[in-house]
Structure formats: C-alpha cells, structure tokens
Amino acid sequence: MIQFHNVTYTYNFNTDTCKDAIKNINLKILPGEFLAIIGQTGSGKSTLVEHMNGLKKPTVGEVFVSGQDIWQKKFDITKVRFKVGLVFQYPEHQMFEQDVFSEIAFGLRNNGIAETKIESLIFEALDFVGLPHDILNSSPFDFSGGQKRKIAIASTIAMQPDVIILDEPTAGLDPYSSELLLKKFKDYNKNKGKTVILVSHSMEEVVRFADRVIVMHNGEIKMEGEPRKIFTKVEELNEMGLDVPQILKVFLELRKLGFPARADIYTVEEAKQEFFRLKNLTKGGKSFVK
Amino acid sequence: MLNNMMVGQFFAADSIIHKLDPRIKLLLTFVYTLLMFFIESMFIFTFNILAIIMVYKLARVPLKILIKSIKRMLPILLISAGINIFLIQGETVFKFLGINITKQGLCMVSTMIVRIICLISGMLLLLYTTSPAELVAAIEKILKPLKIFKVSPEEIAIMFSIALHFVPVLLLEAERIMNAQRARGAKFDSKHLKEKLKAYITIVIPLLISTSNRANDLAIAMESRCYHGGENRTRFKILHYSAYDLYALLISLLYVLLLLIFNKLDFFKIVM
User: Fold this and answer.
1) Fold held by A2-236
2) Which residues of chain B are within 8 Å of residue A111 when distances are taken between CB atoms?
C-alpha cells in the first residue's frame, strides 16, 4: 500500500543547523494491516507519517502509494491526501467552520464530492465516532474537548480513506472514549479492510490493537514485528526510553520474586487466567517466594 | 517553509557590537535613521554603505543574511520605485509605454532605493546584534520618563517581550495547522486566487482561536505566580555602560557630523 525506499528527511537542508529527522527508512505497509509506530518524543514518528500522505517531501529516496511514486513530476499530490487520511495530534485545533456539518464536509468538498452524497457520508462518519446526528447545525466550538476531537476525527473518516493515520488520537481523552474510538478503528480495519496506522505512547493500546509494530529511535527503524514479540525485548526497549505494557511488568516482577509466571501477559483477561493458574499451583501450601 | 518568513532574527556572535549597551544601540539606530533622511547625495550614500559593511564585519554578522533580507523586501521597493518613476515631472530622458521618464524621476528613485536599503541595513543590524531580552530591557529604560503620564514602561516592555517570544511559537503553530488542513485537501498552492484565499482562512481562524486561548492561559499562569511589573521588581540582567559605549557614541557623533558637513558642502554631489 505504502512503500518507503531509502527515505531520508533533513530539516533545514543546506544550512548549518541541518538535522536528519529520519534516516534511510525502508518500509512496506501492507493493505489492510493495523500498524503501530512507537518511539520516544523526537524519534521521528511524526516526520515519518507526514511522508505517507505527501506533506513532507523526502530529501533522499522515494515514497510509493499504491505503487505510484508520489513525488514524480506531473503527479497530483492532492490525490494521495484523499487516499491517505492523516489525523494530527490534537485535531480539534484545526477547526474553523461555523457549523459541524461544514466542518466535516470540508475535506469532502475539497475532494469534489457531490453535495447529494456528502450528507450520507457525514452521517456515516458521525455514527463511526459515536456522535448524535442532531449536532450538525451547532458550532463546532460549543463542544467539550473530547467531542471536538470526535468531530475532527469524523472529518477525516468522512473521506473514507484507504489508509488512515492516527497521531496519538487518544491523548487527553477519557479512558472510555479512548477505548471506544480505538475499537471503532479496529472495526474500520477488520470489516472494511482498510489500513490503519497508529502512532501511540500507550503500549497497552499497541499490544491490543496492532498487528505489527515499528519501533523508531533517533530517526531510524530499530525494531519491527508483532507486538508480542517486540515486547519480549524489555531491556532494549528501555534503552530507547520506551516501556512495556504495565501488566507485563507485574508478571516480570513476580518472576523475579520466584513465581513461575509467564512472561507474555499483556491483557487483563490473560492476567486473570494467569493469576488463577498461579493460585492453583500454590494450593498445596508451596511457597515460591525465596 | 514558514521559517523563511523570519527577518531580522537575533544572530548570536561574540563581537564588540554585540557587547554594546542596548540603550546605546537603540539611540544610535534612531539617530542613524534620522540621518538617512537628511542625506541627498548618491556619493554619500555609497560611502555610507561601505561604512555599514564595515560595521557588519565588526559585528561578525555575515553579509549573506543581510542580502537575503533585503532581497525579500525587493518587491515592495520595486513597486514604489515603479510608481514614482512615472510620476515625477521634468526633463525627458526617454519614453516608456508612452510615459515620459524624466531625469529627475530617475535620480529621485535611485536615491530612494538606496536610502531605504541603508535604513533597512541599519535597523537590521540592531536586531541582529541585540537579543530580544536586551532590546526589551532597553525599551523599558528609555520609556521610563513616560511614568509622569501614568504610562507603565514595565507593562509596555512585558507586552513587547511576550509578542517577540511568541513569534516562533505561532509560526510553528501556523505550520502545523497548515499541514492539518492540507491533509484534508486544502488547496494552498491553487492557481485560483479565490480558492487560495479560502484555503488561508482555514489557517487564520484556528490560529486566532489558539492565540487567544494561549493569551488567556498565559495571563492565568502569570497571575497565579503573582506577576506584577514595576515596583520592587528586580532584573535578571542589569544594564551597564562600558567604555566601549563611550567610544561608540564618539565615533558615531563624528560620523554623523562628517556626513552632514559633506552633505551641506554639496562638494561631492554628483548629479546624474
């Protein structure tokens, strides 16, 4: 779907203060996968995703979307923007329209979609983020932070992009809304076969939702693979300033204390079962604590 | 992209000019600006440009930066020159599009351009060699006498420094919003003026909202730390005059007199 070929991006190119934001990136994103990107602040995650819809032009290398080199001359880069939707961090800061309808319709109108079709797409987008239909005439600025976020996400979802990139979509949202939103994106991924790319600082989100994870460090891809495999490399992750899911940490500590606990527990459900198993093991009055 | 808009940003270097007291620099820039309006001769302007280049060398500010800034002002310069050249009456030198181009017109326009370039270079020198903090401190000192009129120089200074401080912050914010709108298909590079203007509105409104929110947050933050300007407030950096400031004053005084005398004498005045 999206392919990076030796991509390097240099800030302030040709000046004294130049700095490589991403270095020599080779990456293949498959259609229909749920990809997570993790990394410390300043590791180049945002720069990487801004290359995926042509917001940034690589200093060196090529980016292909659906096999098309997007920086080839005569290629209309705006086409890529409708194919690859990007939801920025704090997307509620980009709102400007007088009513929610126009706000969500902005992208659709830019894409030249007929007014008759716009309405149904907007309703669909509202359902997606879980907002009622009667808000369309109110001002987008009258809502709470979380609702604004949902409206902003709806404005990208309404365009029904083949790939949707989410740059920390749940930052500052309450746990319930975060959960709901991510589940919706998982549905979008599973049921519609669309590609979802999630930039996140929450290892719990990554392990629960992503099929594959990329670990960025100092502008390079340091690790790549299934989340469950990546999170076994606890020390390497810690060196890069990253963490593993909290629940896993509990079991790793238990192992240190001498319990024969598994080291691959990532979700509450798995933890519950593991605790029951450990409880049954200790039933005979055996103590594992040294 | 928006970084290119920064004109006259402080250029940190270790030089005598950087070390001068900002009050002196502010005063000298003011005098220099006035001086430029008194001079009429092309020869003296040329001399002045050479002097400016020398001071830039002394300040260790690369001329490249200055030339880049002047280049950016070129469109404005050319437009005003273009208008003037057709309007001034006098001896016709040649005709262009049926309008007389006069000797006086050419003469006046060329002096005007050189004068503006001299003015810009002088003011930019102040901005290149004085950090915003120093500049604000100097303004605060200079405005002290306004206290008689119940104007608080501290408040003016703090507003000034906040404004300066937030320029890069807002530029970054503008760039972020621009990218966000671009991701939704806004056409900033459109060839139709109407579409282009429409696209820019999508930056202006969010930027205004975030700016006013930011201002509000800042006011609350200042208030909760009990900020109040004026009375009993001490400074982190206290301004001191040094011997260099005296030399700078004397040299500048000499220079001003020299230029004024030359100008009066009309000795070198070259009539084009």
Assistant:
1) Rossmann fold (3.40.50)
2) 185
